[in-house]
Design brief:
heterodimer; A: mainly alpha; 2 domains; 6 helices; about 70% helix; B: mainly alpha; 7 helices; elongated
């Protein structure tokens, strides 16, 4: 009797472990692949201060929230990515006033290009 | 009185001189094969509304009023038109990538719904370009449908 009880317990525990692990593992992977490491590094150091929950400017937050980007529906995501490309192309971000005050916030051309080609490819992949 | 006359003369001379400066107003282009009008994205009422409310700054088919040919008002107009076309030119719609089209449609929706477009200064003179709630919802719905069609 004791052993047969134990036999039932094992699959239950195994099932519990499986349903815990699976979705969590998936979301982790999703998050990781949305922003490649080099892209995330640039965003964190040059953009995230204003375009995230910690930002002070309402305009900046209304225009773009990096954390919400992966959860937008397809068309809004494409539109936002297009906005990012356009803004970077005209050297609009980070704003001049910010760079003047904090020169280390300047986005070098090379970094801008990385963000632009990432956003372009990401949008194209959604349009295929 | 003498001073007044001299001043008036100076203003008139100046007004005549500035007529010879280039205004920078872009020329209309007759060919519109790339225009949104030729695409399957627009219905007749939508296209009519776009023509009425947007095309004067966002296309190569601008209806120039008489004061577009006269400085200094021509300078203001040329600024508006050139800036408008840099953002969005319905006459070269097919030259935009899918991504750009979807980005532009989203912007059109935002601008129209928030009442930022058409510009107040434009509406002062072009009363029939004004968008009422009906026209706003027509255009807003259109941007969504067009976006969905491009996404397919």
């Amino acid at each position: 009797m004791k052993t047969s009880n134990f036999i039932y317990v094992i699959p239950v525990i195994a099932a519990l472990i499986l349903i815990q692990g699976k979705p969590a593992g998936e979301t982790n992977q999703k998050k990781g692949s949305f922003f490649p490491v080099e892209v995330k590094k640039i965003i964190d150091s040059k953009c995230y201060g204003c375009h995230s929950a910690q930002g002070q400017s309402k305009d900046a937050k209304d225009a773009l929230m990096w954390d919400s980007l992966p959860n937008l529906n397809k068309s809004s995501m494409v539109a936002t990515l297009d906005d990012i490309v356009k803004e970077l192309r005209k050297n609009g971000m980070p704003p001049e006033a910010v760079v003047k005050k904090y020169p280390e916030m300047k986005l070098p051309d090379a970094e801008s290009k990385i963000l632009q080609s990432w956003a372009t490819l990401k949008a194209d992949s959604l349009l295929r | 009185m003498k001073i007044f006359k001299a001043l008036l003369l100076a203003v008139i001379v100046l007004l005549i001189i500035i007529q010879f400066l280039p205004s920078g107003i872009p020329e209309n282009k007759p060919g519109d094969e790339r225009s949104i009008a030729k695409s399957n994205l627009v219905t007749v009422p939508v296209l009519d509304q776009l023509r009425k409310s947007c095309f004067d700054c966002h296309s190569d088919q601008v209806h120039f009023p008489w004061y577009a040919k006269v400085a200094p008002s021509s300078w203001l107009l040329s600024d508006h038109i050139n800036e408008g076309k840099a953002y969005l030119n319905f006459s070269v719609w097919e030259d935009y990538s899918k991504r750009e089209k979807i980005g532009l449609l989203q912007k059109i929706k935002d601008e129209v719904e928030s009442g930022k477009m058409p510009l107040k200064s434009y509406l002062l003179i072009h009363r029939d370009a004004k968008l009422g709630s009906e026209e706003i919802s027509l255009l807003s719905k259109w941007t969504e449908e067009a976006t969905n069609r491009i996404m397919e």
